[in-house]
Amino acid sequence: MDKVAIVILNWNGAKMLRQYLPSVLQYSRDEATIYVADNASTDDSLELLHEHFPEVRLIEFDKNWGFAEGYNKALAQIDAEYYLLLNSDVEVTHHWLTPLIEFMDAHEDVATCQPKLLSVQDKDVFEYAGASGGFLDRYGYPFCRGRIFETLERDEGQYDYPSEVLWATGAALLVRAHIYKDVGGLDPRFFAHSEEIDMCWRIRLRGYKIFCLPESQVYHVGGGTLPKGNPMKTFLNFRNNLTMLYKCLTDSELRHVMHWRWWLDYLAAWEMLILKHNLGDFKAVYRARRAFKRWRKDFKTDRWQIQQSRVQKEIPEQRRFSLLWQYYVKGRKRFSDLP
Known about the structure:
globular; 13 strands; 9-stranded mixed sheet; two-stranded antiparallel ribbon; 11 helices; alpha/beta; single chain; 339 residues
């Protein structure tokens, strides 16, 4: 059994592997076994791994299973105490892994944690995908210590302390293997986007804790598979976010939140069309709403099981305010300015 299995899911990411895998090997090989799970790449990823990184353990799939199911299938083949899900476009640093492992070893009630995530392009700025740990507002909008919507803060040490969070970024997520399996892993129906938030929320509802540990830091490119402004990314984000809310919100919250999200989602769609002249994203929001309505019935059993297994009704990291109100009306664009 491995103590820690670092698992990089790859799909046509030869360029990223060539650039960032050496840092993973250099700074992690003494503490972890490193795997690459390949989602049927059609570029030269496999040749690259065989020729230049023979020490990496390779798991090959015959089709692209997406992020969620790709990881589920890969991790099912690995026997380890901890899984570390790591994006192929992450540059790790000296001593990045030790703080995460030591913290998890010392705190059995912590199920998952993440390092501080900074941008490869500007290493003094937080990276969008997870910054210094994630939260949700009352209506399901995700935000982070260091990132609210599109506003990224400079890292000036303002969040350099361990903090409980609601979700850890899937770009670099350390999780106890038995808990990953107990909660059913990432929801494969999501395919990609919001799946780590959904899983972390389900873990948190069972009473486990989730942390960001800024003593560990890595650098992330971000948007490597689907860049911002891609209609498919918009579709997946809206559809999956609504599905996650349906699964995890209490009965008393669900109707109220979904009522407001109906208005807010269509308002966002028209803002994309009128102010940003983005017809693709406008259509994507409408498609996402229709897709959620069609498949919501498929998640009734999931919702029942999640509500039955929850041990906490109130989750402090699911904040009670509206992020839209705080950001656009109050002008509060830094995490430290929020209520």
